[in-house]
Amino acid sequence: ITMIGSAALTVIVLCLVVYYLYTYSSKCSKLILSYAHTRKNRTIIRNSPSFSEIFAPTFYLFTGHMQTLFYIFTHLGIFHVDLYPYIRTLLQLPDGGQISLDWITHPEVDSSFSENTPIVVISPGITGNRYCGYVKALIEEVCKRHFKCVILNHRGCSQTPLATPKLYCASSTDDARAGINYIKQKFPNNPLYAIGVSFGGTILGNLAAEEGSNCKIKGLVTICTPYEIYYSSKILKNLLFGFYDYGMGRNLANKIREHKAELKKLEKVYNINIEESIQQIKTVRDFDRIFTTRLHNYKTPDEYYRKCSFGLRLQNLKIPTLLISPLDDPIVPPYMLPYEEVTANENIILASHPCAGHVAFLRGLIPTQWHPLPALDFINAVNSLSQV
Q: What is residue 80's predicted lDDT score, i.e. its pLDDT?
């Protein structure tokens, strides 16, 4: 009996090992590309080395949830410790509000800076800033390429003082436009590119779609950006018993707490209590119901989600655009990826992968993020193409 039990256990262990190896091997692949087969797109892809490189996720992080949760709990702060110094510009907006631009300073980049040096603008996620792991990873790769890096901070984010009782939302393209225009006025001859991560990709994507062929950005990369915010909000509500939604909601509540002195001016105007509102915000929808709908003139959160979704405007993109969307992103599942819209617009390339999670793309025993490679390869390829 003991021998039979040992044999059975051995068989079970071997089956589990085989299953793991099979599962993991299926997650190791090149980027899966969708695009209109034009000469320009083929040239961009050919000149982007990482597009043909096999991305193998960290062997113990082989599902989208594993990748995403590991990133959330570590923020990669222990792996990306190099924080480049920066110079901050506070930019006043027409309505009295302000955003900030953090110009990353790097000795080699600054010493070789000329009017031919590409400038890369990074727009973080919904409550992100330059201290987030994914932003630091992007900064690191931008500087390696000897490109100038600028972080575009939303109102009230990254210690940017909130000058008026108004917050940002997915339709805050005027704020982003002001930042882009300022950079272009300051450096009119430098090619300007942008990378938007998650929520930041929604804002930049909507901006690029609004401006069409007049867009001052020469190339755009979006990473893990929801194409249909309405459906992503429904997914968030039930995903892992609402864990992601609760975490994002509390981050937004903390943002309100950080700026409650200025936001108290809203109490009489909208008949709300800021202190009570902070306690009521448990999800992203709670935040949007209490603040976004009121401050940006939407009747309901659903109206806001439907009208501000980047996916509805893909046909209006007139600049080279790379959409990086993992197939196992918990917030943007594969059935939401806009394959038909992409192949119908010769300016867009969609890059997906079987295992990378939401803004994770972790690889290696001590995980590091891989997504900066395809993002900067794409920008470099577009920049080289424009110089021919």
A: 45
Q: Mind listing the pLDDT tens digit for each residue in 62-71?
A: 999 999 999 9
Cα 199 off chain centre by = 6
Those residues with Cβ within 8 angstroms of residue 354's Cβ, 6 or more apart along the chain or in another chain: 26, 27, 29, 32, 326, 327, 328
Q: What whole-number distance in Å separates Cα of residue 356 and Cα of residue 250? A: 24
The H-assigned helical ranges of the chain are 2-27, 39-46, 64-74, 107-111, 133-144, 173-186, 199-211, 229-238, 243-258, 260-263, 266-270, 274-280, 284-287, 293-295, 301-307, 339-343, 372-386
Could you report the per-residue pLDDT of 15-70, keeping only the tens digit for each? 777 767 767 888 999 999 999 999 999 999 999 999 999 999 999 999 999 999 99
DSSP string for 321-365: EEEE--TT-SSS-GGGS-HHHHHT-TTEEEEE-SS-TTTT-EETT
CA dist., res. 201 & res. 126, Å (int): 10
Determine how many CB atoms are found less than 10 A away from the CB of residue 272.
Answer: 17
Could you give the CA distance from residue 182 to residue 95 in angstroms, rounded to a whole number?
Answer: 16
Supply the pTM of this predicted model.
0.94
Alpha-carbon Rg for the chain, nearest whole angstrom, is 22
Residue type, 336: M
Token pair 């210690």 in the structure block, residue = 159
Non-local CB neighbours of 328 within 8 Å, separated by 6+ positions? 63, 64, 65, 67, 334, 354, 355, 356, 357
